[in-house]
Amino acid sequence: MTAALVALSLFGATVFNETFDRANQLYTQADYPGAINLYEQLVRDGVVDPNVFFNLGNAYYRNEQLGPAIANYERALHLSPHFESAARNLETCVGKTEKRLARPLPPAWEQSLLFWHFRLAPGTVRVLASLCWLSFWVVLAARQWRVIPYSRLAAILLLLASAAFGTSSWAKSHPLSLAVASAERVPVRYGIGENETIRFELGEGDRVAIESRSGNWARVRTSNGERGWVDLSNTTVVGPPYERPSQSVNVSGSGAGEG
Amino acid sequence: MVSRRMMALIISLLFTAAAQDAAKVVLEADRDTVGIGETFVLTIRVSGGGVDSVTLPEADGLAIEGRPFSSSTGMSAVNGRVSQTNVLTFKAQAATAGTLTIPPATVSVDGKDIASNSLTIAVSESAATQRPRGQTLPRPTARRGMAPPSSDSSPEDESEISVEDLMSISAEVDKAEAYQGQPIVLTLVFMRMTSPYNVNPNELVTSLPELTGFYALPREPEETGPPETRTINGREYEAHYYKQTLFPTTVGDLEISAWGWQGTLGVRGYRPVHVELTSKPITVHVKPLPDQPPAFSGSVGTFQVEANLDKARTIQGVPVKLIVRVFGNGNPNGIGAPKLPAMDWAYVGDLEKDNGNQIAGVGAGVDQRFVFPITAIESGKKTIPEIEYCYFDPETGAYETAKTSALELEVVPSAEPEHKGVSGAGDDTENVQLLADDIVSIVNDPGPLKRSGSSTVSTSLALVAPPAVYAALAMLLGRRRRLATDSGFARSYRARSRVKKALEGVRDSREPAAALFKAVAGFIADKFNVPEAGMTSIDAQQLLDSQAAPTDVATALVKVLRSCERAQYASTRLSEDELAALLEGASVNLDALEAELKRRAQK
Lengths: 259, 603
What we know:
The complex is a heterodimer.
Chain A: H1 2-28, H2 32-44, H3 50-62, H4 66-79, H5 84-96, H6 108-113, H7 122-145, H8 151-173, E1 178-181, E2 185-189, E3 198-203, E4 207-214, E5 217-221, E6 227-231, E7 235-237
Antiparallel strand pairs in A: 1-4, 1-7, 2-3, 4-5, 5-6
Helix pairs in contact in A: 1-2, 2-3, 3-4, 4-5, 7-8
Chain B: H1 2-20, E1 24-29, E2 33-35, E3 39-47, E4 51-55, E5 62-64, E6 70-78, E7 81-94, E8 98-102, E9 106-109, E10 112-115, E11 119-124, H2 163-166, E12 167-173, E13 177-179, E14 184-195, E15 200-207, E16 214-223, E17 228-232, E18 235-248, E19 252-256, E20 260-266, E21 273-278, E22 282-287, E23 296-309, E24 313-315, E25 320-330, E26 346-348, E27 352-354, E28 365-376, E29 380-384, E30 388-393, E31 398-403, E32 407-412, E33 422-423, E34 433-434, H3 455-485, H4 487-504, H5 512-528, H6 537-546, H7 551-569, H8 576-602
Parallel strand pairs in B: 2-11, 13-22, 23-30, 24-32
Antiparallel strand pairs in B: 1-3, 3-7, 4-9, 5-7, 6-7, 8-11, 9-10, 12-14, 14-18, 15-20, 16-18, 17-18, 19-22, 20-21, 23-25, 25-28, 26-28, 27-28, 29-32, 30-31, 33-34
């Protein structure tokens, strides 16, 4: 049974890597729409990997789609905060936006209580939380067996660490919902609907935090604290879930639909 | 009641008499001579009835405002006759010089059209030099006139009082010489006599002074404060002050033209008097500003500046607001923005002007805020240097510089990539350039790619499994500890296994009855934690009764014990059948006893 699962896993990995390699090949041949399609297919198949998002960001950038490029670099950095190349490319893209708006900040409680977790990957935090939790119960069990010096203190510390890493893990799996403007001009309105008065406009690549959603409309906040309603079809939502941008690319590459 | 009816009858008769009195309409002008375009007053007096409608006279070169600017109604009874009088006044102007004949006005009085008299007035090219009729007033206390306030005469003089004595207007400025942009306060003074005559002015036209070459705040003069009471030559006047702040926009001699007032003056007991008053024009000499230093902000006046940040701590890449407040005296619309010093560590965004606290109205009070978005591109403790604000102080005749204090800003590193490639500072956005313009290329070897599994199951397992294992382990260890320390619990816990083993060995024993007795008595002793040695069937019965064991179980077990005792003491061996029956009875009832004890323990 185990052997079968391992074999299936290896087979899946091989298929995904083949798709990834084909997408890279299209990218090097400057067939960016084709590459985008293949990378997006990997994401659609459930492959959540910072390298895929990074390459997808590059393909969007080369295809002159700044908004989706920034969204995918954000995804890569969320999964791997130390991904220096993604950070560099994100910086380049943000530098090309008109307003160079900063990324909206996470909630105040997260900034103050979890100030230490922004450079940790979600997987790392999850493993640390599990280890601390398991260790806490092991220490408790050991105390049942025999008296161990400082075991009470160790248990308290492990419980606190479990709570901290657990909260961090929850926060990582429910990150600040970001949307990136994907059109040249994205109007932000006072209310829901095309007839509402425009409050301000976002330029392509501007990142906003989604505070609430109503259908395809979202109440967004910029890093400057300005708020309004925006039609999400003009944006790329960073996620998770990792959705493809609403404004689809003009597919002309040979790799489209393969995989 | 009778008196009321009588009164009503009298009033009815009086009104009937009034109605029967012949109605009369008189047309009057307040002067005989007017200038072209000069406003004069036409009065229509109607007596002897109520006015239904008025048809105004029409003539070439005559313009009459369609609506009366005042109207009054009165009733009087003379020699038993009641008379109703209506007075309507209209503003009129003549357009052509010469003799103007105003045809009769027609008034519908109680349904009957009655024509007034006609009028003839002279219209001159220039403003009328003739004073309006009724320009002088007799002294109220049987004297012929009153003295003007400007002369040395006292109110006891027999001379008449002119209309200028009844009311006057004037204009004045607080300085006759000023620098360009320096605030000048223009004050318009309006005085009316309150004693011995209480003059009630009725304004027709007010022409404000022309202010060519000045920027004025507010756009029209505003009355400042309540009226003052002034006493001049023993006469009391009520003075109203209207002020306006002027800022010269050009240099040279600028003229503030005269302001005028036209209207009627009413004094109780006398006919209204039409008057025209004008002030004297004022000339202000405006000097140019001396040579301007490069840092000059363009502001003229006296100012102070202060600066603050909306927060003292920020994250790299997140803008803070630097608010520079300029306040003092000067032209609010001539306040130039302060120039920020260079800051290599920050990007300064577009200036936002906040006029929220601008002081409105008369005076040159200024309180303006300039908001600069500052985005730190480096982390660490940063300093915003002193901000200098250079202005021209007209009081000293020199350029002065006000300074803010330096501000500290703590910039913490951001999780966002640092803006390493951004250079430039200050508000010169053109200098901000990206040094690295292209992107890092794609990843070719990502390692094995796999589908991301659902974390819900693994998370639930990771959360639930450790405490479950711990709970089982804790129960196990707790039982072991109790068995080691609680002999009663240990005897009771092990009684079942002991009696089972003992019953299995009964048949092979040399003394089966003794072995069976020992097994059953031992089980009862273990379960109730009493000494087993020396226990008899009577002891067992008492013990079972004291522990409220079920009667049938207790009886059966005691019977087994007594059978064993009889066999022991009678020196007769139990037959196989008897032994089997006793073993069966012992086994069944011991199980029943244990079940009952477990049930009680669970309760």
